[in-house]
Amino acid sequence: MTFDSLYCQALCWTTDGELDPGDKLVLLNSLIPQSTPSEQIELIQVVEQLGLLQPEVTVQVSNL
Length: 64
Known about the structure:
Layout: H1 21-31, H2 37-53
Helix pairs in contact: 1-2
């Protein structure tokens, strides 16, 4: 695996020491095209799980 498409950028970290979810997604999306097919499957699964772990804010709709 090479890191041709990665470039230097500041990464954001959460208060508990984890990489910010947005930066995780950027990193994973950068790694997927450069990975072997079996690695791609694992990385795609991580991206899918990342989406499920994010809290969703929805607007409550009510009749007024």
